[in-house]
Amino acid sequence: MKCPYCSSDDTKVIDSRPADDNTSIRRRRQCEACGKRFTTYEKLETMPLMVIKKDNSRESYDRSKIEAGVVTSCHKRPVSTEQISRMIDEIENEVFAMGEKEIPTSVIGEKVMKRLKDMDEVAYVRFASVYREFKDVNTFIDEIGKLLKTEKKARAKANADKL
Predict the structure, then answer these.
(1) Are the CB atoms for 58 and 51 separated by under 8 Å?
(2) What is the spatial distance between Cα 13 and Cα 31, in angstroms, rounded to a whole number?
């Protein structure tokens, strides 16, 4: 494993343990050249997954594309990189557990939106505006209106439960 700081090939494993989801191994490493420490994750290699895009073209699944979209939507929001990573791990586990060789991007996108909605509503609206290709402000306002209705129902239920 190359050191991300100095690119030396001479690194050693200091600690190994199962990651939170028990589907990967977390390894703490130390570079023998510069002495800096970093973390790597080892995952089981699964069958290659192809995603079917909106235009029906196909390409290999790429986690970094999901990460980029989620990180952008969570920019300057109170969402940690740990939360983002955990969320994407959960989505990947669900997708790979489906056992399909091909999956539409819409399935992945909906899973991302569902989790973002629960995690941070602003990040959800940001992601949805790009994912659903909002054409104008009215579409944006409609989506926020749906969020407000859901929140209002949740508050009403919470108040009813208190009584």
Answers:
(1) yes
(2) 9
| Higher-pLDDT residue of 127, 21 | 127
One DSSP character per residue, 97-148 reads HTT-SEEEHHHHHHHHHHHHHHH-HHHHHHHHHHHTT--SHHHHHHHHHHHH
How far is the C-alpha of 33 from the C-alpha of 11, rounded, in Å?
8
Q: How far apart are CA 20 and CA 29, in angstroms?
A: 18
Using a cut of 0.85, tell me whether the model's pTM lies above it: no
CA-to-CA separations, 118 to 3, 13, 28, 41, in angstroms, rounded: 36, 36, 31, 26
List, in sequence order, every residue forming a beta bridge with 15; answer none if it has no partner: 28
Write the pLDDT tens digit of every residue in 72-131. 999 999 999 999 999 999 999 999 888 889 999 999 999 999 999 899 989 988 998 887
Q: Are 3 and 36 in contact (CB under 8 A)?
A: yes
